[in-house]
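Lab notes, practical 5.
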Amino acid sequence: MQRSDVRRDDGTWVGLSLDVRGRPRPGLCVFSAGSRLLISQQSRPVLLAVVDEQLDGVDFWRTEEYRSFVPPLRADVARALAGSRQRWAHRFAQYLADSPESPLHEGRWLLSCESPLQHWRHAGESHAEYWGSMLVDGHPEGYLDWFFHATSWEVLPLRPMPGAQDSRVKAYRKQAREGTLPPVLLWWVSGLDCHLILDGHARLAAAVAESVEPPLLQLHRTVPRDVLAERTDEAVASYEGELARFARLRAVHGPTVPDGADTAGPQLARLLHDLNTVAQPTWAWPLPGGEDQWRRTAREVTADREWPPS
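Output from the prediction step:
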C-alpha cells in the first residue's frame, strides 16, 4: 500500500490517500443480494440489513461477531500523539493495511480528519446532545432512518456502546478532559448511507460523557487510479485551454485583460483536490447463493426470530 498526505492549497492537512494493490477482496466485506446486505468479517456475519421498499431506511440486525483490527491503544502513546491526527492516521493506516480483517481492498482510499458529521451541530447544542443523537440505537436489531437522518448523518456502532461507567470509558474520559483522546475510526458505507465505527466505541462514549467533540478519522473510497489519471488530464487540458482563451483576448484588447491565472488556477486546484478526496460508493460483492443464502444466514444469527419485520 502506498500512502501520501493530502493537503489544501493553504497547506492544511486533510488526510492520507491510500493506494491499495493486490487485495482483491477485503476481510471486512459488504455483500449484496437485491435489497439485502450482509457485512461479514472473514466468515463471521457482523451485520444484516434490508433496505425498505420506499427507500426510507434500513432494518438491521447486529451480531456479536465484530472484532476490531486495532490493538489496544496505550495511554502513553495517546499522550505522545496528542493533537496530531496526521500521526494517528499513519498509525491507523498501518493497522488497516496489516490486518486481514479490515475493509481495505484494491483501489484508492482516503483516511481523513474531516467528516460531514462535524458540520451539522447547532451552536446551542452541546457535544453530548449532538453526538448522542447521531448514534443509532438498537441491539441486536434496529432501524436506520433515512427520512429523518439524511446525508450520512448517523453513526452505527458495530457492537453495543459501553456505558459511561465502563472501566474503559472511565479511562478514556480522563484523556478526553486532557485533550489526548485518540481518534474514533469511522467507515462510510454508501449502501447504508451511514458511518460504521471500526474502532473507538469506548472513546466515542467517553467523548459523549464529557461533552467534547470526538476526534475522528473517516475512511472512504475515492476515485480509482485509472479514472484519476483521466480526469487529471482533463482538468489540466481545461486549465490550459482557459489560459489560451485569455491570451487570445489579451492579443486583441491589450494588457488590461487579465491572463486568467487568478480564476483558472484556483479552479484547477479545487478539481484536483476533489479528485483526491471525494467519496465514491462502497463496493459490494454479490452474495454467493443470493437472497436464499441471506435468509439462511438471517435465520441462523437471529435464532429463527421473525426478522426483518414485515
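Observations recorded by the TA: Residues 209 and 281 are 33 Å apart (CA to CA). The longest strand covers residues 13-20.
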